[in-house]
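re: ur question from yesterday

yeah so i grabbed the chain u mentioned. its 211 aa long if i counted rite. heres the sequnce exactly as i have it in my notes:
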Amino acid sequence: MLKNTPSLDLVEFVETQILPRYANFDKAHSLEHVTRVVRRSLEMVKTTGADIDMVYVVAAYHDIGMSGPRAIHHLTGGKILAQDARLRRWFSAEQLKIMREAVEDHRASASHSPRSIYGKIVAEADRDLSPDVVFRRTVQFGLANYPGLDREHQWQRFREHMDNKYSQHGYIRLWIPNSPNERSLAELRNIIADARMLRKQFDQIYDDETR
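ran it thru and got these C-alpha cells back, copy pasting raw so excuse formatting
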C-alpha cells in the first residue's frame, strides 16, 4: 500500500537541514519556490505510483546546487544529494543513484528526457507555468543577476527568454500527460504571442519589483 505522506523523521531532517539553505538563493530559487515544487511533486505521487519519500527528497534537493554556478546547478545538486551520507538512513545506494539522476535531469533546457519517473515528476513540478509566476520569476532573476541593465535592456532579456523557452518553438517540454501545466502553457503562449500584452505584463511586474 502506498504511503500518503513522507516519513516524519525524513520531513524533520529536510525541513531543518535542507530547505533553510534556499534562503540564501535569489528570489526565483527561494524557499517559496522549493516549497511549491515539493507540494506539486507530492501531488503527482498517486497518479504515477512513485515512492513518496524519494519524490520528496528529489524535490527538496532539486535546486540545492544554486550554492554554486547556476549553469551547472543541476549537476552540483545531484552531487550534493549523492554525497549526503545522512540520506543513507532512509535510502539504498540504488535509490540514491536514481534520485541523483532525477536532480540532474530536472532542467527545462536538458538535452535528453529525464531518465526516471522521479526526474519527470520534479521537472514537471518545477515548471509552474501560471503566467504570473513565470513572468515574475523571470523579472526577479534579471534584476538579481543583471542589476546593471536598465528597464529597456531588462525587457529585451525578458522577451528573449520568453521566446526561447516558452513560445510555440521554445525548448520547454512537459513530461506528465494531462497535467495542469498543459493548460497553463497554452495560456502563457497566447500572451507571449501578443507583444503588447507581454510588454504590459513586464512593466507591471518590473514596477512592482523595483518600487
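noticed a couple things. The chain has eleven helices and no strands. also The two ends are 51 Å apart (CA to CA).
anyway ttyl
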